[in-house]
Amino acid sequence: MMIPKLQIALDNLTFTDAINALKGVAQEVDIIEVGTILLCAEGIRAVEYIKNMYPDKIVLADAKIADAGKIITPMMFDAGADWTTIICCADIPTVASALEIAKQRGRDIQIELTGHWTKELAQEWQKIGVRQVVYHRSRDSQAAGVNWGLADLEKVGQLCKMGFQVTVTGGVNVEDIQFFKELPIYVFIAGRAIRDASSPVSAARAFKNEFEKYW
Ligand code: 5RP
Ligand code: MG
To answer: Which of 48, 91, 122, 184 has a Cα at 20 to 30 A from 132?
Structure first.
């Protein structure tokens, strides 16, 4: 199995905080995410600034697009995003148009699995050519005490078997990584576990060590 990639999520309320959070740690990660919270707080310019500052990194705009895919998707790519996210409840034409725009530009989209989705829907995404999905324990579910469990492993395993490149996110801590060790996870996202650590660099390295240990 390939070693998973590490993505830092910048869900800061200001661009200044996001940049401070990235200092020193950017070289430790493979992907930099302009989080939904940062996008709402600072707008699309956050994507533009971060891609300009880190042109060699994959930059993901976590826009969680639900509709108007033909308008919002190119906005993210024009600002410099390499990847952007479409929420799983979006209609298939929204996904298809976003995917087409991504392909034309050599970029990619991910389906954000926050909330309700079904295997049948996943089959439809696959049929139209979606490659990436993000398996997400929502921040609010996590805050309400929902833990990773066997049902998560089963669903993530099913998505991997279907051939998707699967990202896992949602309050992921270093201790959670080994729980997924049997699966070919493509990317793990860590936001607060890196940003709020006393040493974000050590926290990012601890994630990478776990990846090396188990994959
Ligand atoms: C919330 C998100 C976050 O970016 C994702 O959950 C990662 O952040 P954290 O590791 O802090 O949970 O998309 O909707
Ligand atoms: Mg996010």
So the answer is: 48
Query: d(Cα 88, Cα 165) in Å, to the nearest integer?
Result: 15
Which of the ligands is closest to the CA of residue 138?
A: 1
Residue 192 CA to ligand 1 centre (angstroms): 8
Using the mean position of ligand 1's atoms as its centre, give its distance from the Cα of residue 74 in Å: 23
Query: Ligand 2 centroid to 60 CA: how many Å?
Result: 9
CATH superfamily assigned to domain 5-214: Aldolase class I (3.20.20.70)
Task: Tokens for 178, please give them.
Answer: 């080994």
Q: Which residues line ligand 1 (CB under 6 A)?
A: 9, 11, 35-36, 62, 139, 169-172, 189-193
pLDDT digits (tens, 9 = 90+) for 131-187: 999 999 888 888 898 899 999 999 999 999 999 999 999 999 999 999 999 999 999
**How far is the first Cα of the chain from the last one, in angstroms, to the nearest whole number?**
6
**What is the C-alpha to C-alpha distance for residues 185 and 139, in angstroms, rounded to an integer?**
20
Task: Give the nearest ligand 1 atom to 172 CA.
Answer: 10
Q: Which residues of the chain have pLDDT under 70?
A: none
Nearest of 168, 161, 151, 57 to residue 110 by alpha carbon:
168
152 by Cβ neighbours in 10 Å (0-12 / 13-18 / 19+) ranks as middle
